[in-house]
């Protein structure tokens, strides 16, 4: 049996690092968004109005825009072709709100253009979602059943798909932000320093995806350290 279950497990440091990275990223994005939520855009557009203009300018007329409750719960649903904007974005005229709305429009444009990383992420999602839910129960069951390697390895394999999803998400999010900044600058929805503010807001938001991917990778690394060499140790 592993001594880790009866004493301090040094691999917990990997979990701690992941948690710290996630908390720091969340703090940065919330602080940055709150700061620039106080800056009203010169155009006076709300997030929803800016999103509608961006979609129409891209020739997209079959994507609906809906209001969703919550703070920064904004997302684009490719299955229903729905762009959902949160309380802090939908009816708000701040530069930060417009930047977030434009980012979500970037995903809709990716969908329209069959952006390969987005298609890959969509394809991976079902198994990644399943894996994130069932991986730990399988691993725990493997430990309980006298360290059943079959169950443990199956859990690690399924968890690796959730990690892969996090990694594939990075280029999707970065590309959507680049599209958003370019569109806002070229369309005249934002002016001058407003575009730079948007870069700061979306840059801060990107940190949450980087931190999420890093935390997932560290978790997978911990599992491999704990269980990967068991057969060799016998």
Strand order of the largest sheet: 1-3-2
Rounded radius of gyration (Å): 21 Å
Termini separation:
10 Å
Spans of at least 5 consecutive residues whose pLDDT stays below 50 are 1-6
Strand content: under 5%
- The tally of structural domains comes to 1
Number of helix segments? 7
Structural class based on helices, strands and sheet pairing: mainly alpha
Largest sheet: 3 strands, mixed
**Beta strands, count:** 3
Give me the oligomer status: single chain
What is the typical, i.e. mean, pLDDT? 91
Q: Which range best describes the helical content: under 10%, 10-25%, 25-40%, 40-55%, 55-70% or over 70%?
A: 55-70%
Secondary-structure element order, N to C = HHEEEHHHHH
Morphology = elongated
Pfam family, one: Zn_peptidase_2
Keywords: Membrane, Transmembrane, Transmembrane helix
Transmembrane segments: 12-33, 123-145, 151-172, 206-227
Protein name: Neutral zinc metallopeptidase
List strands and helices in order, with pairings.
Blueprint: H1 12-36, H2 47-57, E1 64-67, E2 75-77, E3 82-85, H3 95-112, H4 116-144, H5 149-187, H6 193-227, H7 230-233
Parallel strand pairs: 1-3
Antiparallel strand pairs: 2-3
Organism: Anaerocolumna xylanovorans DSM 12503
Keywords: Membrane, Transmembrane, Transmembrane helix
Pfam families: Zn_peptidase_2 (PF04298)
């Amino acid at each position: 049996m592993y001594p880790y279950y009866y004493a301090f497990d040094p691999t917990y440091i990997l979990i701690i690092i992941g948690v710290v990275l996630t908390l720091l990223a969340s703090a940065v994005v919330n602080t940055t968004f709150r700061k620039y939520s106080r800056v009203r855009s010169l155009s006076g557009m709300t997030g929803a109005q800016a999103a509608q203009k961006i979609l129409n300018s891209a020739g997209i007329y079959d994507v609906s825009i809906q209001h969703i409750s919550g703070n920064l719960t904004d997302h684009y649903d490719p299955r229903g072709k729905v762009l959902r904007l949160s309380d802090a974005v939908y009816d708000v005229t701040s530069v930060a709100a417009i930047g977030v709305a434009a980012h979500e429009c970037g995903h809709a444009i990716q969908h329209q253009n069959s952006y390969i990383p987005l298609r890959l992420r969509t394809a991976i999602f079902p198994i990644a979602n399943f894996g994130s839910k069932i991986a730990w129960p399988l691993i725990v069951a493997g430990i309980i059943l006298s360290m059943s390697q079959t169950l443990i390895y199956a859990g690690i394999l399924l968890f690796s798909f959730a990690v892969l999803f996090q990694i594939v998400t990075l280029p999707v999010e970065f590309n959507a932000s680049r599209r958003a900044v370019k569109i806002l600058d070229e369309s005249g929805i934002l002016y001058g320093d407003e575009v730079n503010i948007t870069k700061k807001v979306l840059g801060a938001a990107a940190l949450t995806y980087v931190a999420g991917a890093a935390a997932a990778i560290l978790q997978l690394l911990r599992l491999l350290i704990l269980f990967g060499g068991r057969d060799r140790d016998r």
